[in-house]
Amino acid sequence: MQKSIAVLLTGALILSSCGSFRDSRVNPRNWFGRSDEVRREVEAETTNPLIPIDDKVSLTRKEKEDDTRVLLDSVTELRVDPTPTGAIIHATGLPTRQGAFDVILRPNEDADEGVLELEFLVNYPEFATVQGSEFSRSVRAAYSVSNFDLRDIRLIRVVSTNNARETRRR
After folding, report:
1. Same-domain check for residues 148 and 130
2. Based on C-alpha coordinates, what's the Rg of the chain?
3. Are 99 and 154 part of one and the same domain?
4. Angle at the Cα of 159 from the Cα atoms of 131 and 50, rounded to 5 degrees
5. Tens digit of pLDDT for each residue in 91-107?
6. Per residue in 106-148, pLDDT tens?
7. Of 81, 85, 125, 127, which residue has the fewest beta carbons closer than 10 angstroms?
8. Would you place residue 17 in the very low, low, confident or very high pLDDT band (cuts 50, 70, 90)?
9. H-helix or E-strand containing 74?
10. Are 18 and 64 in the same domain?
11. Whether residues 8 and 36 fall in one domain
């Protein structure tokens, strides 16, 4: 009788300690919380973005292809899923019209230390398309981050033209 009570109490104690692991910083599912929308200040450009800054081409370097992607209109969702090798950042956004393609999350090198800032970029068709419903315009992109890069990141921010979404490490 005493042995079964001792086993029962030990089992209950071990099981109750598992609940604290769920909320701990050790659990990878708790590294980043839900995303929040933040205001973005847009600065006026003093230079013409259509004129290339570096137009030098050498014999050993190929000529760079023009990247015609532009910032997406708005980011609607941001999610960070942990993986064994790091994390995958999923973003959903709304372009201004249907037909957006070549969607990418590109890191911004000018971001502050401890911040991973990703620009949500898309290409639009050269021909006119209708605006359509939000569901038909919705686009998604993902970006993979290794554990090595993730150790210094405290904030992940996805930037678009009209807004930005960010999530912080807990």
Report:
1. yes
2. 23
3. yes
4. 75
5. 999 999 888 889 999 99
6. 999 888 888 999 999 999 888 888 888 888 889 999 999 999 9
7. 127
8. low
9. strand 74-83
10. no
11. no
pTM above 0.85, yes or no: no
Largest CA distance in the chain: 87
24: containing domain: 1-30
With contact defined as beta carbons under 8 Å apart, do 169 and 153 qualify? yes
Q: Give residue for tokens 């919380």.
A: 33
Q: Judge whether 53 lies within some domain.
A: no
Would you say 141 and 105 are in contact if contact means Cβ atoms under 8 Å apart? yes
Q: What is the pLDDT of residue 118?
A: 94
Strand partners, 38: 164
Strands 139-146 and 86-94: antiparallel
Mean pLDDT of 34-38: 74
Chain-wide mean pLDDT for the chain? 82
Question: What does 111-136 look like in DSSP terms, one character per residue?
Answer: SPTTEEEEEEEEE--SS------HHH
Pair (3, 17) in one structural domain: yes
Does residue 99 belong to any structural domain of this protein? yes
pLDDT at site 2: 74
Which residues make Cβ contacts (< 8 Å) with residue 27, sequence separation at least 6? Answer: 21
Tell me the two tokens of residue 143.
């970006």
- The encoded tokens of residue 92 equal 């959903």
Amino acid identity of 109? E
Q: Hey, what are 167's tokens?
A: 């999530």
